[in-house]
Amino acid sequence: MLTGSCLCRAVRYRIDGAIDHVSHCHCGQCRKAHGAAFGSYGHVRPAEFRWESGADAVASYRASAHATRTFCRHCGSTLQWIPAAHAEYFALALGTLDDDPGARPERHIFVGSKAPWFTITDELPQFATYPGADPA
């Protein structure tokens, strides 16, 4: 079991399963949502996730035709990236975890639009867009 929360702790959640496919996403939306060079996300199966408290404080934003983002309406913490085309998972903002998920980053995605002021210094694979495309 893993737990997590937003910055103000109004929203708390629990995961009864594993997190996998951990990525550092460098797309413009993730940079803006996190206020950082990239957002770190891992895939979670909806059946293994539940809001422990504060579900009424979770707001959503249709960020594109491809995904909805959720966040705490009180403190603004980014929580989820929910793809429109894949009901079998959503991407959880790993910075909201209270526990070590065990999983480690596997890749950098959307490096074709990364912040020009940030240099990637690790050896993880880099993809210009999403994996399945040619590495950057």
What sequence of helices (H) and strands (E) makes up the elements? EEEHEEEEEEE
Using the coordinates shown, work out and report the CATH topology of the domain at 13-28 and 38-52 and 59-113.
Answer: glutathione-dependent formaldehyde- activating enzyme (gfa)
CA-atom Rg in angstroms: 14 Å
Major β-sheet annotation: 7 strands, mixed
Q: How large is the share of residues in beta strands?
A: 35-45%
What is the number of helical segments per DSSP (H or I, 4+ residues)?
Answer: 1
Q: Mind telling me the CATH class of the domain at 13-28 and 38-52 and 59-113?
A: Alpha Beta
Protein architecture, described:
With 136 residues, this protein is mainly beta. It has a domain at 13-28 and 38-52 and 59-113: glutathione-dependent formaldehyde- activating enzyme (gfa), CATH 3.90.1590. It is 5% helix and 36% strand. The chain is built from one helix and ten strands; from the N terminus they run βββαβββββββ. It has one helix at 28-34, and strands at residues 2-5, 12-15, 20-25, 39-44, 49-53, 58-62, 67-72, 78-83, 90-93, 107-109. The protein has a seven-stranded mixed beta sheet. A three-stranded antiparallel beta sheet has the order 1-2-5, with no helix packed on it. A hairpin with a 5-residue loop joins strand 7 (67-72) and strand 8. The radius of gyration is 14 Å and the shape is globular. The model has no long low-confidence stretch (mean pLDDT 94).
